[in-house]
Amino acid sequence: LFVHSTALDELEYLHETAVFVDKSGTIVAVEKNCNEEKVRETVLARLGWEAADVEVVKARGGQFFFPGFIDTHIHAPQYPNVGIFGSSTLLDWLNTYTFPLEASFSDKAKARQVYTRVIRKTLSHGTTCAAYYATIDVPSTNLLADLCLVSGQRALIGRVCMDSDLSPDYYRDASPEASIAATKATIEHIRTIDPALSLIRPVITPRFAPSCTLPLLRQLGDLAKETALPIQTHISENKSEVALVRELFPPSLTGAADDSYAAVYDAVGLLTERTVLAHAVHLTEHEADLVAARKAKISHCPCSNSALTSGAAPVRRLLLDRGIACGLGTDVSGGYSASVLEAARQAALVSRHVAFGPGGEERDRLSVDEVLFLATRGGAEVVGLGDKVGGFEVGMEWDAQLVGLGAIGEDGEEQEWEGEDGGPGGNVDVFGWESWPERVAKWVYNGDDRNTVKVWVKGRLVHERK
Ligand code: GUN
Ligand code: FE
After folding, report:
1. How far is the CA of 335 from the centre of ligand 1 (A)?
2. How many CA atoms lie within 13 A of 56 on its CB side?
3. Nearest ligand to the C-alpha of residue 136?
4. Residue 358: pLDDT above 60?
5. What pLDDT digit, counting tens, does each position of 2-14 carry?
6. CATH number at residue 296
């Protein structure tokens, strides 16, 4: 069984189906209503493949293939802090927990330890592609790119830019020029290790407006234009942050069309169709129009927005009323979990709070199918890979996870799946009478990495649950 999104509100269940992946990791055929005999007798011949050369992976009883998750916003160096945020909110959280930890990544041994772990952890949760923020330190940021390449995780790697005195002396860029030079050094490094940018891509990463001076924002906007590289940053996460941006960047200074947060990024050339905006909790209607007009994308980070008491982003409206492309971000460690499945579950729950909150409506609620769309196809579009990953289609690359569910026997005990075809499952109990959409809903609300049996990126097996 293959399950994937075909539209925001529609999961497709492909039973009796075979997907053919070539040596480069590209899907070359999707055969529906197919059995092993038909595969052997017709499809292999058509592809010109010898049966003996083909490696066969089956989803056994209780298992299904699902596209790999895309984490559109995660801070790799903050992983040691997951769950550690106390009662802080964004601006004091940065100073108390985040800047001291990120500054310590000038220690390359520590960077290697943490980055190795964060890649293993996210792969084990089915994250086949992540848009990472690293730190201001170039050698360790380049190391993160090396480690992703070696581990086989698809990644966008952002060397963090921050030169304003909002940040402490011990953790900021010395000047806009130094910040640009450091950014270029990481871009060059990635072009050296993955010249075609087939797995790893650099991403221009102004931390957020308040941590950058106007000259730096402008120069990053110019660099994005010159290089056509993607951009990632934060926007309208927290009300104090929004007020701070209004104070720091009046239109008289920036030449922006109005005094909104989105207009600041727009004025410096950072609001583009290649821009990933994290959070977008407190956008005004007018800002949402501007984001939509520029075709910028949004990374919805529900775990983080709840943990740091930032707010609840009305993401279904942004999707449906404005047509803005949205994906999910774990936002480790504003978010307490590195799991995109947890982000999907929290997206569903937070959307219910939006629905019953002030001004909320029925249509603010996200369904299981919708949060899984955000976790896969939506995320792919957000990071500029909408034609490459996120679904099982000919021409796309095989970034996928094999998900297993547990079987409960007549005695009420956990058991092997019936018959020799039974596969290992995870902690989600299936009694056998549930429909497949019900099983998938159980996975979304109860699943974790114990259900992630195998993970592939570009056809390569990158994780197997032991
Ligand atoms: N805004 C600026 N930096 C950060 C960060 O590291 N995490 C979150 N959640 N918001 C930010
Ligand atoms: Fe963040």
Report:
1. 10
2. 13
3. 1
4. yes
5. 999 999 999 999 9
6. 3.20.20.140
CB-based pocket (< 6 A), ligand 1? 75, 90, 94, 98, 207-208, 234, 237, 304, 331, 334
Same domain, 309 and 169: yes
Q: Which pTM value belongs to this model?
A: 0.98
Count of the separate structural domains present in the chain: 2
Residues 11 and 116 in one domain: no
CA of 328 to the centre of ligand 1 (A): 15
| pLDDT beyond 90 at 339 | yes
CATH of the domain at 10: 2.30.40.10
Written as six digits, the tokens of 53 are 């050369």
Q: How far apart are CA 149 and CA 197, in angstroms?
A: 10
- CB atoms under 10 Å from CB of 24, counted, come to 11
Domain boundary among 351, 382, 413: 382
**Nearest ligand 1 atom, CA 308:** 9
What domain range includes position 287? 69-382
Domain end point (choices 382, 405, 434) = 382
The one-letter amino acid code at 240 reads: S
CA 368–ligand 2 middle distance (angstroms): 24
Domain membership flag for residue 389: no
Angstrom distance (rounded) from CA 46 to CA 53:
15
pLDDT of residue 445: 98
Q: How far is the CA of 299 from the centre of ligand 2 (A)?
A: 10
Which listed ligand is nearest to 134 at the C-alpha? 1
Q: CA-to-CA distance for 323 and 318, rounded, in angstroms?
A: 7
Counting ligands in written order, which one lies closest to the CA of residue 334?
A: 1
The complex scores an ipTM of 0.99
